[in-house]
Specification:
alpha+beta; 29% strand
Length: 84
């Protein structure tokens, strides 16, 4: 199975949209680490793809699951031009 995903991160909010093109489902999770953890645990053995997953989204996902502030990680990557 495939999971297409994209994160948006703001100073006080984050959102991920996850689309499964095979099952034709869309999941939206905003500001809920618990919901994201449950979804991730149920689908972690699947292929996760994203437009900028290699340089950005995978690190935001990991940050949230590790109880890190996704905004700080986003700023580290984007504003400081660093790698995740």
């Amino acid at each position: 199975m495939l999971q297409g995903y994209d994160f948006e991160v703001y100073k006080f909010d984050w959102l991920v949209v996850i689309i499964n093109p095979i099952e034709k489902t869309t999941v939206k999770i905003a500001n809920s680490k618990d919901q994201l953890q449950k979804y991730y645990d149920a689908h972690k053995d699947q292929i996760w793809i994203g437009y900028n997953s290699r340089n950005y989204d995978q690190y935001i996902l990991k940050a949230i699951l590790l109880d890190m502030n996704p905004y700080d990680v986003s700023q580290f990557i984007i504003a400081k031009g660093r790698k995740g």
